[in-house]
Amino acid sequence: MDPMTSVLLPSAQSLVTAILTDGWTHVRDVLARRWSRQTGEAQADVERRLDTAHHQAAGIGDDEAVQRAYWAGYFAAVVAERPTLLDVVRELPDMPDLHNTNSGTVTNLIQARDVHGNISFGPQ
Q1: Angstrom distance (rounded) from CA 85 to CA 95
Q2: What is the pLDDT of residue 108?
Q3: CB of 27 closer than 8 Å to CB of 15
Q4: pLDDT tens digits along 71-91
Q5: What are the domain boundaries of the chain?
Q6: 44, 123 in Cβ contact below 8 A?
């Protein structure tokens, strides 16, 4: 896997997962804030750009693999146009404000990502 792909694919996966769990508005706000900070562009302009991309992504269907491919391509184009954004894209998988966080007393909590195979919970 080439270096750019090794950055883009995990970033696209994280973004799509965050969109599905946290909603577009939250994800857009976090990404736009970091993008704006990195490039000096107005955050409102970045939000509009991201909203346009999200609208286009929604137009191609809601299949998760298709969405990941779309966002990987989108990030590739963005980084080609604005190389300073590579760090923002690279950080997406590790951005704590893009992921659900549970705190407090939790008795039964199950969170998962990319679960495959036969999974059982509780006594057998």
Answers
A1: 14
A2: 57
A3: yes
A4: 889 988 998 899 888 888 888
A5: 3-98
A6: no
